[in-house]
Automatic annotation (TrEMBL):
This is 3-methyl-2-oxobutanoate dehydrogenase (2-methylpropanoyl-transferring). It comes from the Eukaryota. GO terms for cellular component: mitochondrial matrix. It comes from Riccia sorocarpa. It catalyses: N(6)-[(R)-lipoyl]-L-lysyl-[protein] + 3-methyl-2-oxobutanoate + H(+) = N(6)-[(R)-S(8)-2-methylpropanoyldihydrolipoyl]-L-lysyl-[protein] + CO2. Belongs to the BCKDHA family. Its EC number is 1.2.4.4. Its cofactor is thiamine diphosphate. GO terms for molecular function: branched-chain 2-oxo acid dehydrogenase activity; metal ion binding. InterPro entries: Alpha-ketoacid_DH_E1_comp, DH_E1, THDP-binding.
Length: 470
C-alpha cells in the first residue's frame, strides 16, 4: 500500500508540469525505476525531447504499482510558483550530487583508427585528405614557430599540440560564414577558412602587414573577412560576446550561428554561466565548444569541478549537450555538424564538451613538466594522438601512405620557414599606427598623446628602435 502511494506521488511529479501530450514510460536502472517523459513542447525550449527524473530511492515501489497508478489523482497538489510550476512532496530529501550515470563520450573511431558502429560520417576522399593535410600543416606550423620563439625571433607562442584533430574537424563541420569567437588555441579554424601561412607569420613577427600591426600578442589572430573575432587574453570574455552575436543573427534571420571556443578552466568563469543562461532564455543559435584538455595551465581538471564535467552543466541551464572524444576527428565532425543544424534550425544553443589532452606546454611561458608526469605526456603522444588516429583511418581506406606523408610534411615545413623569413624581412609598422584603427576621427586626447610620444623620441632618439619608421 505504501509503495503504491509513493508511486503515485512520483508519477505526479513526472506528469504535471507538462502538457497532456507528454508520453510517460517507466524504465529500470538496476534495482531502481525512473520515469521518462517525452514531450514535443520541450524540443522548442532547448531542453530536448526527453527529461530523466531522479529516482527517490526511498520509494521502494514495485514495477506493477508504477504502471497501474492513476496519474490524475490529487492533481491539486501542485505548486504554481512564479519561478516554476512543480509538484509538492512530503518527503524531506535532497537530490543527489550527480545523475545516476555520467554522460557518455561519443566516438566513431577506435584509438587505432578502426570504425566503430554505423554512424560514420560520409566523408569523400578529397574532403578527408584536406582535413588531414590541414592537421599536419598545423603541427608543422606550431613546431617551426615554437622553435622560432625559443630563438628570440618573437615574444610569445602557444601550440595546439594534441588538439590539432579537434581544431580542423570543428572548422570543417561549420559553415565558413558562422561567426567564431575563439580563445587562443583555435588557429586551425582560421587555417581551414583560408588564412595563409604568410599571414600567420606576419602577425607573429608583428610587421606592417600583420593583422595586429605589432599591437597584439603574437598568437592573437583575427580576421573580419573570415568571420573570426580577434583573440583576447582575458578568459571567458568571448562567451557572452558570442551570445550577443548569435542573438543578432537570429533577429536578422541569417540562418547562421555563432560559435565560441573555451577551455574547461574558462568554464569556471562567471562569463560562461551568464552566457549559457542568456543563450538558453533568449533561444540563441550559438555553439558553446569546450576543449576539455585536462589542464587549466597547471591546475588539473580534478581541482576545477566536482560535477559531471562541462557537459553535465547543460541540463541545469536547459541546453542540449553532448560529450565527444576530441581526439576522434570523425566524431567531432559529426557532433559539431549535428549541433550546428540544431542551433540554426531551432534557434537554440548547444553545448559540446570535447575531451582531449594538451600535449604541449600551456605556452612558451610555461614548463608543464613541473606539474605533470612526463610519462603522462608520452602516453598521449604515442597512444592517443588524434592526428595519428585519423591517418590510420585514411590509410585503411587507401587514401594516404608513407610516401605522401613524407612529401607533404617536407613541403609544408619549407613553406612555413620561407614565410617566417619573409615576415622578418618586412618593415615594422610606423609609429602612427599606434594611434590608429580605434576611432573614425582621432580624438583630441589621443592626438596629444601622439605629440608627446614624438617629442620624447626627438629628445631621446637612442632609446627608440631603429627599425620602426616614424
Amino acid at each position: 500500500m505504501a509503495s503504491s502511494v509513493a508511486a503515485r506521488k512520483l508519477l505526479r511529479i513526472a506528469r504535471k508540469p507538462w502538457s497532456p501530450s507528454a508520453a510517460l514510460s517507466v524504465k529500470r536502472s538496476g534495482s531502481k525505476y525512473f520515469v521518462e517523459a517525452e514531450d514535443p513542447d520541450l524540443c522548442r525550449t532547448g531542453l530536448g525531447g526527453s527529461l530523466f527524473f531522479r529516482l527517490f530511492s526511498s520509494l521502494g515501489a514495485s514495477h506493477d504499482s508504477l504502471l497501474h497508478c492513476n496519474y490524475e489523482e490529487n492533481a491539486e497538489q501542485r505548486a504554481a510558483f512564479s519561478g516554476a510550476t512543480i509538484a509538492y512532496t512530503e518527503d524531506l530529501q535532497f537530490v543527489s550530487k550527480l545523475l545516476p550515470s555520467r554522460i557518455p563520450c561519443f566516438r566513431v573511431l577506435s584509438e587505432l583508427g578502426k570504425e566503430l558502429g554505423k554512424d560514420v560520417p560520409q566523408l569523400g576522399r578529397t574532403m578527408a585528405q584536406k582535413m588531414y593535410e590541414q592537421m599536419v600543416t598545423l603541427q608543422v606550423l606550431d613546431n617551426v614557430f615554437y622553435n622560432a620563439q625559443r630563438q628570440g625571433r618573437f615574444a610569445f607562442y602557444a601550440t595546439c599540440t594534441g588538439e590539432e584533430a579537434l581544431n580542423i574537424a570543428c572548422a570543417a563541420a561549420l559553415n565558413d560564414t558562422d561567426t567564431v569567437f575563439p580563445q587562443y588555441r583555435e588557429p586551425g579554424v582560421l587555417l581551414w577558412r583560408g588564412y595563409g601561412l604568410q599571414e600567420f607569420a606576419d602577425h607573429c613577427i608583428g610587421n606592417y602587414q600583420g593583422h595586429g600591426k605589432g599591437r597584439q600578442m603574437s598568437i592573437h589572430y583575427g580576421s573580419s573577412k573570415l568571420h573570426y573575432f580577434t583573440i583576447s587574453s582575458v578568459l571567458g570574455t568571448q562567451i557572452p560576446h558570442a551570445v550577443g552575436a548569435g542573438y543578432s543573427l537570429k533577429m536578422e534571420n541569417e540562418k547562421r550561428c555563432s560559435v565560441t571556443f573555451f577551455g574547461e578552466g574558462a568554464a569556471s568563469e562567471g562569463d560562461f554561466h551568464g552566457g549559457v543562461n542568456f543563450a538558453a532564455c533568449l533561444e540563441v543559435p550559438v555553439l558553446f565548444i569546450c576543449r576539455n584538455n585536462g589542464w587549466a595551465i597547471s591546475t588539473p581538471a580534478s581541482q576545477q569541478y566536482r560535477g559531471d564535467g562541462i557537459a553535465g552543466r547543460g541540463q541545469a541551464y536547459g541546453v542540449r549537450s553532448i560529450r565527444v572524444d576530441g581526439n576522434d576527428a570523425l566524431a567531432v565532425f559529426s557532433a559539431v555538424k549535428a549541433a550546428r543544424q540544431l542551433a540554426v534550425d531551432n534557434n537554440e544553443p548547444v553545448l559540446l564538451e570535447l575531451m582531449t589532452y594538451r600535449v604541449g606546454h600551456h605556452s612558451t611561458s610555461d614548463d608543464s613538466t613541473k606539474y605533470r608526469d612526463v610519462a603522462e605526456i608520452r602516453h598521449w603522444t604515442e597512444k592517443r594522438d588524434g592526428v595519428a588516429r585519423f591517418r590510420n583511418w585514411l590509410e585503411s581506406k587507401g587514401w594516404w601512405n608513407k610516401t605522401m606523408e613524407e612529401q607533404f610534411r617536407w613541403y609544408v615545413r619549407a613553406e612555413v620557414i620561407a614565410c617566417l623569413a619573409a615576415a622578418e624581412a618586412k618593415n615594422k609598422p610606423p609609429l602612427a599606427d599606434l594611434f590608429s584603427d580605434v576611432y573614425d576621427s582621432v580624438p583630441q586626447n589621443l592626438a596629444e598623446q601622439e605629440t608627446q610620444v614624438r617629442e620624447a623620441v626627438r629628445k631621446c632618439p637612442e632609446v627608440y628602435p631603429t627599425d620602426v619608421p616614424l
